[in-house]
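ok so i was messing around last nite and threw this chain in just to see what happens. nothing serious, just curious
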Amino acid sequence: MKLKKAIPDLKRYSSSELVQLSTMAAEARDYVLATHCAIEAARRRERYQRAILAPLEAADLPGIDWWPEAIEAARSVRKTTQGNHHLYVVLLDGFSKDSRYGLYVGESARTPERRFANHMNGKHAARHVRRLGKCLLPELYAHLNPLSREEAKALEPVLAEAFRSAGIRTEGGH
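result:
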């Protein structure tokens, strides 16, 4: 089974195909695909749920429990300009209270991929991203990029507050 870049509509997949997808997510440490598999597993019969979730549990890769709220919060933020600045959102893993996962919201003239690499390499790195950063979550910011520098600076705290208001632990966004 070959996985396309975008997350497919998992409702159409058989339970055995979902087991394959969850295995792929576990092997690739794909937090978003793991989350989608976990969400779809919850809609299945219990014996299928266990089979779908087993690879994720073995890899210690639970789904992101607040994912639907994060999508809704991100979609509530809109841009009005074009430019060469970017907002980005990083998944943080390592919290213990309330939820294992959190978010970091940032703004940069660099692409999100380049800025994330800089964080991970220690270049102008936020300590939360350097220590706890796992991956970018383009599903939460791609609709906003690129935008003007002024709007990027203005929307960074707005996006972070939208996540916080949804009950998601969020760092950055200043």
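not much to say yet. Strands lie at 86-93, 101-108, 133-136, 170-172.
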